[in-house]
Amino acid sequence: MLIGVPKEIKNHEYRVGLTPAAVRELIAHGHKVMVQSQAGLAIGFADEHYLQAGAVLASSAEEVFAHTDMIVKVKEPQPVECRLLRPGQVLFTYLHLAPDPEQTALLLQSDAVAIAYETVTDERGGLPLLAPMSEVAGRMAIQAGAHALEKAQGGRGVLLGGVPGVPPGRVVVIGGGVVGLNAARVALGMGADVTLLDKSLPRLKEIDLVFRGQIKTLVSNAANIDEIIRDADLVVGAVLVPGAAAPKLVTRAMLKHMKAGAVLVDVAIDQGGCFETSHATTHQDPTYVVDGVVHYCVANMPGGVARTSTLALNNATLPYTLELADKGWSVALLENIHLRHGLNICRGNVTYAAVARELGYPVVDVLDTIKSSS
Fold it and tell me: Which of 69, 270, 295, 341 is catalytic?
């Protein structure tokens, strides 16, 4: 199979779909890899590294899309990239389609096979290709939130860890999954007063054991959220419904009771955001203020630490990329139910129920679609 790696073009996105080490593995399996020139340069992967690994360089994204069988990216294709996809071409990347009707329509028009990292599952019911970026985003949420709390950034001027004689900042984390756990860990490490909310009592018990009672836990419901965020300095939205739009857990009315200069960090913004007042921002212009509350809603947070994120992502995605290349996409998906869960769009059809439900498309049977398209 000929695998293509275009340079990412989303605002301040420096990650790259395949590292030189991953390219070397694919070539060792008998495949060919075409990488757009300077695709990884910003994070220290020069063209020479890819050439040494055995890749062929392309001068443009158009060349990569025109000649390859499978495109491996990091972020969702931008409209100009969607229009470069060919019928039957495989796209393997993060998609986050539920809050993005334009991308969904363009992918359907392309007649391509779009497999989303974020809905691939594992034997334990986890999301193994989302987890590494969730770990990064959870840890970054506290780092970004602490910076936004500085007075010069529009925040309250609160140091999360406090100092002797001055109480620490109060951090509220909504969601006890991978993002929430990592956010709580970093906030606690900085010395903050941390409260975590989740709907699952068993999950709250697990978290209480992990942190040995060092963080407070609450059942996540509207009343508890409304009450706890009133005294918060930093609130991290860390909820996820796989493949679907995030629920709006903090309403605009709730903001009126928060402290002026408090900070909201919406890690769920890729799925539409879990705060009613959220809209996507960029690393270039990351924050805005609503009712005196600072909002940080960068849609590709891990891109801020692009080298770490690329290495972590490739560690997780490479086995699946190899499986798709070695077997061909249709056989790989038929044989691996967990990889099959990643199929969101196939040859003009929506195959992921949550996306179809959110955007009003009919959902087609995955197995029937794969068999008829192969």
Answer: 270
Q: In the prediction, which pLDDT does 275 show?
A: 98
Taking the C-alpha atoms of residue 319 and residue 338, their distance in angstroms, rounded to an integer, is: 13
73 Ramachandran zone, left/alpha/beta (phi>0; psi -120 to 50): beta
Q: Which of 102, 97, 104, 70 is nearest to 86 (CA)?
A: 70
Write out the two tokens for 226.
């409304």
Q: What's the pLDDT at 325?
A: 98
Which helix (H) or strand (E) segment is 92 a member of?
Answer: strand 90-93
Which of 329, 327, 262, 308 is CA-nearest to residue 135? 308
Q: Give the model's pLDDT for residue 372.
A: 86
270 counts as catalytic: yes
Which domain CATH number covers 145? 3.40.50.720
DSSP string computed for 294-355? EEE-BTTGGGGGHHHHHHHHHHHHHHHHHHHHHH-HHHHHHH-HHHHTTEEEETTEE--HHH
| 216 and 359 together in one domain | no
Please state the domain count of the chain.
Answer: 2
Is 111 known to be catalytic? no
Of 299, 329, 357, which residue sits at a domain end? 299
Spans in the chain with pLDDT lower than 70:
none
Mapped onto helix, strand or coil, the DSSP state of residue 185 is helix
Q: Which domain holds residue 272?
A: 131-299
Residue 244: predicted pLDDT: 84
Residue written as tokens 């008998």?
30
Q: Which ranges constitute the DSSP H helices of 211-328?
A: 222-228, 252-255, 306-327
Q: Which of 31, 49, 96, 295 is catalytic?
A: 96
CB atoms under 10 Å from CB of 29, counted, come to 11
Whether 188 and 266 share a structural domain: yes
How many Cβ atoms are within 10 Å of 122's Cβ, its own excluded? Answer: 12
